Amino acid sequence: MLPVLSNAWWMLLLRGAGALLFGVAGFVRPQAEVVFGTILLVLMLFVAYAALAGLAGVAAALLNRGRPGADLLALLGVAHLAAVALALVYPAPVAIALVLAIGLHALATGVLDVWIAIRLRRQIRTGWLWGTAGVLSILLGGYLLAFAGAGVAGPSRLVFAYAAVLGVLFIALGLQGRLRPDRSPQAAG
Question: Would the pTM count as exceeding 0.90?
């Protein structure tokens, strides 16, 4: 798994940057709300983030084809892209469908993130960042699925805060992989 991540540090950086932009854009939304409305704005921001993260995950998996762990990156990318498809194909029941799509996306990618963190626990010191991101995603996904009937307006600030924190975690992971030429655990100390 570690050789795959050594070659795919940019995927983590892109995923982090996309999540951070999604979170920050959501907090500056009052001006955009006038033009787009809360639901459409959240949908557009979510689709942009998930598409970026999905394409980066699939590209990283393809570039590392045949290496251990590439399959998990592919699954992660596909989970992101499936959420994009769901959000775009079923925009009619927008409020509940969007909350469900974001909840399912967070739950699926959270489980995969924890799985990856467990596989990396002996190889990198900062694997806990990945595990933390996964646990936060699982918690948010569970919350959104449990309270989907509330629509998107209520939990939107929570979603944006989560995205910003997730962005920082994945940017840190990406930079950790990029800045260290020897990515072995011994080089970390």
Answer: no
